[in-house]
Amino acid sequence: MKPLDLAQMLAAPTDSPVRDTLRRLAPRSLDALIIEALSATEEAWRQVAVDRVLEFVAEQPGDGRPVVAAYFTTTERRTADGMHVGWSSFVAALASTEDVPDLRHTRTTAVGEAALAEEVFADPELTDALNRLAALDPPGHEDVLRIHLPTRQVTRVKP
């Protein structure tokens, strides 16, 4: 079986072969499978975010110093379920050093023109990755997401 075929089957766990197999697993094995799938998914979304930031950095005019890290701040989004904190899809800062730049917290709510600007100008793949990361591990209002480009590490920092 090819990995793509397996992925498609697992994406539809109510289909007969997958459903029957999952029913035969012991609860502990099923829990382990879910945890492993979620962690693999989170790492995959982190790498999508890194790739998109690297592409963004490559398009920016520079002063000769390589960019070491990119930072993302949080934003609130109003949905039918209420307000949710997520990662803003705009790079808050590019840093050519290891030091965290001044990212004092400001509360931003994506409504009206801000939401439209995000829709029109944001990188859709980066937006999807950041939204998925926020859904898997919701950020706090003052959190900052740091993407360290040389190591490809995505971490949450407090400025």
How would you describe the overall organization of this protein?
The protein contains five helices and six strands. The longest helix has 33 residues, at 27-59. A four-stranded antiparallel sheet has the order 4-1-5-6, with helices on one face. With 159 residues, it is an alpha+beta fold. The radius of gyration is 19 Å and the shape is elongated.
Order of strands across the biggest sheet?
4-1-5-6
The total of beta strands comes to 6
Tell me the series of helices and strands, N- to C-terminal. HHHEEEEHHEE
Major sheet attributes: 4 strands, antiparallel
In percent, how helical is the residue content? 40-55%
Radius of gyration from the alpha-carbon trace, in angstroms: 19 Å
Supply the helix-strand structural class.
Answer: alpha+beta
**Oligomeric state of shown chains:** single chain
Beta strand %: 15-25%
Which parts are unreliable, with pLDDT below 50 for 5 consecutive residues or more?
none
How are the elements arranged and paired?
Layout: H1 3-11, H2 16-24, H3 27-59, E1 69-72, E2 74-79, E3 82-87, E4 93-95, H4 112-121, H5 124-136, E5 144-148, E6 153-157
Antiparallel strand pairs: 1-4, 1-5, 2-3, 5-6
Helix pairs in contact: 3-5
